[in-house]
Design goal:
single chain, about 350 residues, alpha+beta, 2 domains, eleven-stranded antiparallel β-sheet, two-stranded antiparallel ribbon, 10 helices, globular
């Protein structure tokens, strides 16, 4: 079975989890480079899902929940596959990547819908003698099915799964790294880079949450930066590595000047400052990605396809291809930062 391509991660709303190592030494010496092992676990999961596990959801006198009712309309399970993910290089997803795979893609194909999950690790950091460490679990599953899948992982691999929440500082860093990936690394005019950034990002939506101690009647505040206004908050060329030059610092200064609210969205103030104690970013969304503090992620980009020479002129336009490439690179940078964050022992500062 051919390895799965990393573009399966794109254009899907994921729920994030953190996994402890998968122990498989009693059955198989290896996992990612062992198609037979992946096939065995896929068949085992399929057998569990087609047994009485899901059939029992509708049993009982109480009315079914929305998620259970959704599952009842999915139809029969047609196929269950586990495939190794060859690489996390989204920018070159169609290029062969020899070497060790860096994750597993689980696909559950029902009659009326397809669900999936992905177990990921930084390339080259997951090999162990008796286990495989894939610290980040992404799920695109309804609640009952997600719990069944997590229970399956726990029973078969003796692994522990926990909710993976993203702190405010990480969301800020994620936005900065995404924007940097869109504007740096190539010899382009700043005006061209800015135009590409605005075309990929379109607009930025920031959700700010407040502690009930300081704002009992204001649980959250939505800040929208329209496409035409993004350039007003971008740092001057050469200042993007300075905290004071970040886009969130500029937004904070604007809000403080016009609304007299010191939000410190960039987190540059002292840890004991009121803003750091009582204000946090709970969600950042734009046309290119979504990151939620409760453990949500979506990366939006158009995968490159081999043999695109026959596409229409718009697809072959150099500027359009450059925009697609940069969007893929920015998504890859953000994905890798989330995976590194999921590693036990990573920086857990909020």
């Amino acid at each position: 079975m051919a390895p799965s391509t990393p573009d399966q991660i794109l254009n899907t709303s994921w729920t994030l989890h953190r996994l402890s190592p998968l122990h498989h030494e009693t059955e198989f010496p290896s996992l990612l480079d062992n198609p037979e092992a992946l096939k065995v676990y896929a068949n085992r999961l399929r057998d569990q899902l087609t047994g009485n596990v899901l059939a029992g959801f509708q049993v009982g006198t109480s009315a079914p929940s929305t998620e259970e009712d959704t599952l009842s309309r999915t139809g029969a399970l047609k196929n269950c596959t586990w495939e190794a993910i060859s690489s996390l290089a989204l920018e070159t997803s169609n290029t062969p990547h020899p070497g060790n795979p860096c994750g597993i893609l689980v696909v559950l194909e029902y009659e009326n819908i397809t669900y999936k999950a992905a177990l990921l690790a930084p390339e080259g950091s997951h090999s162990r003698k008796t286990s495989t460490y894939l610290p980040l679990l992404l799920t695109r599953l309804p609640g009952p099915l997600r719990q069944t899948f997590i229970s399956f992982l726990s029973a078969n691999f003796d692994t522990y799964c926990s909710v993976f929440r993203l702190p405010s500082q990480f969301l800020c860093a994620g936005l900065a790294s995404y924007l940097d990936a869109l504007t740096q690394g190539r010899d382009r005019e700043w005006a061209t880079s800015r135009a590409i950034l605005e075309d990929v990002v379109k607009e930025i939506q920031i959700t700010v949450s407040f502690s009930t101690n300081v704002a009992p009647d204001l649980r959250s505040l939505n800040i929208n930066i329209p496409r035409g206004s993004i350039k007003s908050f971008l740092p001057v060329t050469g200042d993007s590595n300075q905290p004071s030059g970040s886009i969130l610092s500029a937004v904070s200064s604007y809000i403080e000047q016009h609304l007299a609210m010191d939000l410190d969205l960039a987190g540059s103030s002292a840890k004991d400052s009121p803003a750091r104690k009582h204000v946090r970013i709970s969600k950042i969304a734009c046309n290119g990605f979504v990151l939620g503090a409760e453990g949500k992620m979506k990366l939006v980009a158009q995968p490159t396809r081999a043999g695109s020479a026959g596409d229409d002129s718009a697809e072959n336009d150099d500027a359009q291809n450059e925009k697609k490439r940069l969007a893929l690179r920015a998504s890859e940078v953000l994905l890798l930062s989330v995976i590194r964050r999921s590693l036990v022992g990573g920086n857990q500062e909020s």
